[in-house]
Amino acid sequence: MAPGFPRSISLPLSPTHKKASYHVRSVSLPCRSHPLISNLEEQIRATRSWAATAEGSLAWIDTGLMQIELLHTALEDFLLLSQTQETLQQSASVDLLLDDLLQQIDTYNSFVSIIVDLKQCNSEVQSAVRQQDEDQMVSSLRSQRQVEKEMTRLTSILKGLSKCRHFGLASDAKELEIAGIVMEAISATAFASMAIFTGIHALSAKATTALKPSKNLMVNLFAKKRPTEEEMNTLEILQEFENCIRNVEFCSERVFRSLICIIVSILNITTPSL
């Protein structure tokens, strides 16, 4: 079995400004027609295609998280192939793969904590409305904006990880191809995660912006008056955001666990049995 994770994680990466280029590799793998290889390449394409649409809606975020799970399932299946394991056992590129995976694991761990914080902020906002506490409302919104800043920092880390590295240490075309397709799956995960983080940040900012000037909403709710159409829209935004963070918390934890499973699989491949 694999040992613990002794590597240290240096965060954040400095994102590059060069436009990312992407393609599924064309070098011929042995047994290229194997369905597990074809499926992994298709999931890489599908993940990047989804992220490129950048809708930002709740349904779009849900779809993206599910697509990342499909990609990770395909990658785990690819890692079970004997040719994959034989190549990675001798590959000098494994450390680069592990380093990028460790940084994504660390980023998702922080992201899950951020989602918990956003859920707490949202709960405090609702409590402020119920208790007619405008000071608490202002304080909660301030806290939420601080959480949004941390999310921006994580997004910048993912921007660096979303670009495929080039392996200069590969001994042959087979090693370059197999390590390369694993790296493409890892970078596609970062690319899609960056889109998800950006979408959630936008929904959070939309909620805080809608509430900030809503003194009339507070007055009407406290006086038990019927809210105006604009105020009803504000309440709908809050409800949408509540639904978003509740679902994202569950799905992001699943992605976090699947990243751990992938890195454990690679460590088991490259670590001799005791």
Number of helices: 8
First-to-last CA distance? 8 Å
**Average pLDDT number:** 80
* Helix fraction bin: over 70%
The string of secondary-structure elements, in order, is: HHHHHHHH
Share of residues in strands:
under 5%
What is the structural class?
mainly alpha
| Main sheet summary | none
Residue ranges: pLDDT <50 for 5 or more in a row?
Answer: 1-28
> Could you tell me the radius of gyration in angstroms?
22 Å
Count the E strands: 0
Total separate domains: 1
- Please tell me what the overall shape is: elongated
InterPro entries: BPS1_pln
Pfam families: BPS1
GO biological process, one term: shoot system development
Please provide a written account of the structure:
With 274 residues, the protein is mainly alpha-helical. It has one domain (58-267). The chain has helices at 35-53, 58-79, 82-89, 94-131, 134-161, 173-211, 215-222, 229-270. Helix 6 packs antiparallel against helix 8 (229-270). The radius of gyration is 22 Å and the shape is elongated.
